[in-house]
Amino acid sequence: MTTHKKITIYQVARRAGVAISTVSRVLNKSPNVSPATKEKVQKAIDELNFRPQVSARNLASRKPQMLAITLPSFTTPYYNEVLKGIKDRITEMDLDIVIYNTGSKDPNKGAENFLDRGTSDTIITISIPITESLNEQLKSSQIPIVLIGSQHPEYNYFDLNNRLGGFLAGEHLIRQGYKKLGMILPAQDSFVSRKREGGFRDALQEFKMPVYEQYFVRGESMKHAGFTEEAGFEAIYELEKHGDFPDAIFCSNDTQAIGAYHALTKLGFAIPGDIAIMGYDNIKFMKYLDITSVDQMMYEVGVKATKRLQELIEGVNIDEKVQEVIQPVIVPRSSTAKKS
User: Fold this and answer.
1) How far, in Å, CA of 148 to CA of 46, rounded?
2) How confident is the model at residue 269 (pLDDT cuts 50, 70, 90)?
3) Would you say 267 and 198 are in contact if contact means Cβ atoms under 8 Å apart?
4) Helix, coil or strand: residue 276
5) Same-domain pairing of 251 and 166
């Protein structure tokens, strides 16, 4: 089956030999376009079988009406916190919201498919790496865009320093006196999990700690790419099969840590007496379970990204790129108390 790439307003403008704004005026039925120019543009539209996006129709007026938030999942606590920050800030803006779940397996493809529909005129992406093809689509949309959890030199972004977070987790456990360190990884590799693991391994190397590869384990669950309670639970039973456990376990996220905590207590381990455990994201549940975590300020990131989006819509500092990397911090709790 042959698939055709979506025609953009750029291609229409090139075919007609006019500016993009002129195409937008024709689409908006503006009276400020000569009949001859209107005919040229309409001919190009017909020849290319162009279907205008909302963004293309709004280019002349510059009044966005619909915010699209694209993300791999909106049912996990991490994404919920970011969305709360966006929601609380968006009340100051006259925008409707559509949330598009790209799925965890191929979020880039999911985002591209969504952009093809042209249903929004401003976008926030969350945890979606900007590939070359996705970048081309975003650029051709000509709409205000802010990235969360990824970087690209052409966009405003608020990225998260996952490598530093992994390093801080390893450093924390080492300074607490733990010698045999392990990590629960997600079933499906991602740029986020690779950075967290890389930072954790960097800490082991810097502090000259032995690396026990048998303690780097994964669960089988592919739901949410393996960032789930089930995956954490399953990973502990992978360790149990070999009858050998580390002194301390760093989980790739908090939901994994919750599942791992439950599995360890079922197996009769005391936390942290027998095994220390920590997570990543510092979701609300961790406070009540008293589990150490890495806080990357998800709510605040959502607020910051939406504030910057509002500035772009209002024409504030649009020639500048706000590109900030959020630095994580350890939130210590009893689950990693100092080893006696």
Assistant:
1) 37
2) very high
3) no
4) strand
5) yes
| Residue 35 in domain | yes
- 262 lies in the same domain as 182: yes
**Which of 2, 22, 293 is closest to 173 using CA atoms?**
293
Residue 34, pLDDT score: 80
Can you give the CATH number for the domain in which 137 is found? 3.40.50.2300
Residues 147 and 167 both lie in one domain:
no
Establish if 57 belongs to a structural domain: no
Asked if 78 and 175 sit in the same domain, the reply is no
Q: Where are the beta strands (DSSP E) in the chain?
A: 66-71, 96-101, 122-126, 145-148, 156-160, 181-185, 216-218, 248-251, 276-278, 293-295, 323-326, 329-331
Interior/surface letters 199-226, b for 16+ CB within 10 angstroms, e for the rest: bbbbbbeeeebeebeebbbbbebebbbb
pLDDT in tens, 128-171: 989 888 888 888 777 889 999 999 999 999 999 999 999 999 99
Q: What is the pLDDT of residues 101-136, one digit of tens each?
A: 887 777 878 887 777 766 677 899 999 989 888 888
- The mean pLDDT of 55-66, rounded to a whole number, is 58
User: Taking the chain, what is the end-to-end CA distance rounded to the nearest angstrom?
Assistant: 65
**122 found inside a domain:** yes
Q: Which residues fall within 8 angstroms of residue 168, CB to CB, at 6 or more apart?
A: 199, 203, 294, 328, 329, 330
Q: What is the gyration radius of the CA atoms in the chain, in angstroms?
A: 24
The whole domain housing 253 covers 162-295
**70 plus 25 within the same structural domain:** no
Number of domains in the chain: 3
